[in-house]
């Protein structure tokens, strides 16, 4: 008889983790959503922009929810499987997908866009964002905040006190101002996550690779077993994500 733990591990290890679609987690994990509705806000801004850039678009899942795009619409992505997925999804909508290493400089001219957007960028190069924005242009993004899902991260890595300050919205706002941007809006949210089985954990740690760098099932099998037993005894593993909506304008 197959050990339920082994079956869950196999399911998480074999799931497709390309793109930025988390629908595989349905029934296995839930995450509360931020109250501001980023996809709706993004669609509203795209409908009135003349030239837009979506940075680190993933598989283009969120960008593709918009009904209308400006005449010039571009998205960048670094991971080749996501570049291919975003191209298939966005090219028919008139959005050009550019393979970019997510390191400065962005491959665009100064002042090329009146709208730059990003959802959950792994890195944020404020000087480059300011450079490619036209005067008066807007950066609208939803960022991952500090200590996001650290309950899960620290379960595997132990306490990470120095890392808990990273991605703080106040620090990001200060960096944006230093690059010549004016902060128009800054909102934060603290959101509940429930993880119902260890397959979801394996899937997440394979997909969001910076949570537990170098994660493999083999390296963390004992800790995965501990988490499986904990969920079986106490119910869903509860964590919290942090998000902030940031809108900045080039002066």
TrEMBL record:
Start and end residues of each Methyltransferase type domain: 53-140
A GO molecular-function annotation: S-adenosylmethionine-dependent methyltransferase activity
**Coiled-coil spans in chain:** none
Give the domain of life. Answer: Bacteria
Please verify whether the record's keywords include Nucleotide-binding.
no
- Asked if Repressor is a keyword of the record, the answer is no
Name the keywords, alphabetized. Methyltransferase, Transferase
Q: Which GO terms describe its biological process?
A: methylation
Q: State the Pfam families in the record.
A: Methyltransf_11
InterPro entries, per database record: 23S_rRNA_MeTrnsfrase_RlmA, Methyltransf_11, SAM-dependent_MTases_sf
Report the protein name in the record: Methyltransferase domain protein
Originating organism: Isoptericola dokdonensis DS-3
């Amino acid at each position: 008889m197959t050990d339920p733990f082994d079956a869950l591990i196999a399911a998480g290890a074999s799931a497709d983790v390309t793109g930025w679609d988390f629908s595989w987690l349905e029934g296995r994990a839930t995450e509360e959503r931020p109250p501001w509705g980023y996809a709706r806000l993004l669609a509203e801004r795209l409908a009135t922009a003349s030239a837009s850039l979506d940075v680190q678009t993933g598989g283009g899942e969120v960008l593709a929810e918009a009904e209308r795009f400006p005449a010039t619409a571009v998205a960048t992505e670094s991971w080749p499987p996501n570049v291919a997925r975003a191209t298939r999804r966005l090219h028919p909508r008139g959005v050009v997908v550019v393979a970019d290493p997510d390191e400065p400089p962005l491959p665009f001219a100064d002042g090329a866009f009146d709208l730059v957007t990003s959802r959950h960028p792994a890195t944020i190069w404020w000087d480059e964002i300011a450079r490619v924005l036209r005067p008066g242009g807007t950066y609208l993004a939803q960022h991952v905040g500090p200590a996001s899902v650290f309950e899960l991260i620290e379960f595997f890595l132990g306490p990470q006190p120095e890392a808990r300050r990273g991605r703080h919205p106040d620090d990001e706002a200060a960096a944006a101002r230093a690059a010549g941007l004016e902060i128009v809006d800054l909102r934060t949210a603290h959101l509940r996550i429930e993880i119902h089985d260890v397959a979801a954990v394996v899937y997440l740690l394979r997909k969001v690779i910076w949570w537990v760098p170098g994660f493999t099932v083999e390296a963390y099998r004992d800790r995965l077993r501990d988490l499986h037993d904990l969920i079986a005894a106490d119910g869903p593993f509860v964590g919290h994500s942090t998000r902030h909506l940031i809108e900045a304008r080039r002066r």
